[in-house]
Amino acid sequence: MRSPADCGRLAGMSTADVSSTTQQDATAPGTGSSAATQPGGRQDAAQFGRETASDGAFVRQPNRFTDRVTRDSRSAPGEGPDEHGHWPVEAGRYRLVVSLACPWAHRSIIDRELLGLQEAISLAVVDPIRDEKGWRFTLDEGGKDPVLGIGFLSEAYLATDPGFAGRVTVPALVDTITGRVVSNDYPQLSLDLSTEWVDHHGPGAPDLYPEALRAELDPLMAEIFTDLNNGVYKAGFATGQAAYEAAYDALFARLDVLEERLADRRYLMGDRLTEADVRLFTTLVRFDAVYHNHFKCNRQKLTEFINLWAYARDLYQTHGFGDTVDFDHIKRHYYLTHPKINPTGVVPKGPDPLRWLTPHARG
Ligand SMILES: N[C@@H](CCC(=O)N[C@@H](CS)C(=O)NCC(=O)O)C(=O)O
Description:
Order of helices and strands: HHEEEHEHEEHHHHHHH
GO molecular function: glutathione transferase activity
CATH architecture of the domain at 66-200: 3-Layer(aba) Sandwich
Largest sheet: 4 strands, mixed
Protein name: Glutathione-dependent reductase
Domain GST C-terminal: 210-334
CATH class of the domain at 66-200: Alpha Beta
Number of helices: 11
Radius of gyration: 20 Å
Bound molecules: glutathione
CATH topology of the domain at 66-200: Glutaredoxin
Shape: globular
Active site: 102 (nucleophile), 233 (proton donor/acceptor)
Binding site for glutathione: 135, 167-170
Strand order of the largest sheet: 4-3-5-6
Strand content: 5-15%
């Protein structure tokens, strides 16, 4: 077993993580004053200065905690990670900390529902509005998570790595025995729910990451990550015109390709749901409510794509998808926590969520 000090490994990318490998898909960010002197991007306008390159492009920070819960962990129940950073699978031990606003967290919430893991992995929901200390458990009695006993997610991050100075992010899988963060590596985390927690899946749980399809699924999910899931952020957080337009063009080019792909198939991989659908849905469901105007992704609304809109409604009306969407949390989070982008803090009233329940005529 590794010592606790080993657990806080260098920020990095997990090997099996198709999404994280594409995280570094723009010029490395500049820092502070040197970036401010470069043409192209306005550092003073950046929502996240440390993650903004000299040309104004948004470059997401790497995931800090990349341990995993795996079936092959050599640690016994109750122990910490083995020498590979693998913690033992144990029902009731880990707590998934999420914001209902966050698309990266939303993946794991949907997977947990679809796979029937609600009893095995408990859920902690943070307030959609962060204060200067970050994500808070103010929705819980006394302002503390009842299981972890903390008021801020940052407490778990700092308990795991006292020197952590990046953004404290959700989702985070936290060990309830030690209070340490096991992972904030959202792509690996959601894949592991499918592949490592099989012994705890509910009856009839779908295989969202079938081995036979991975050769096609992995590149598809990488494209969805680069151009859509992270693409909306690259458009929204850009502080340079060219960086914004590059993200915008790639985003709508990818939506056009997927619109075509969904013309003759119910789901991205045909007639079966996969992790790719989960990942696409979390961006689509936020598109008209947030990304279209807040992030300036306004060539088209989702509702103006025939196939994508019907596909998104089909998923929304499937258990695990629409019942995990909270438009109130989504809108208040984005419009109230990005003061550089929405300085008035006014939250838009629309669009009407009831249109998600209209017939989709698919499947
Ligand atoms: N873990 C990833 C992505 C997860 C992520 O960005 N989550 C957002 C919410 S959607 C978050 O927690 N943000 C906290 C912040 O910006 O301070 C990262 O480090 O970039």
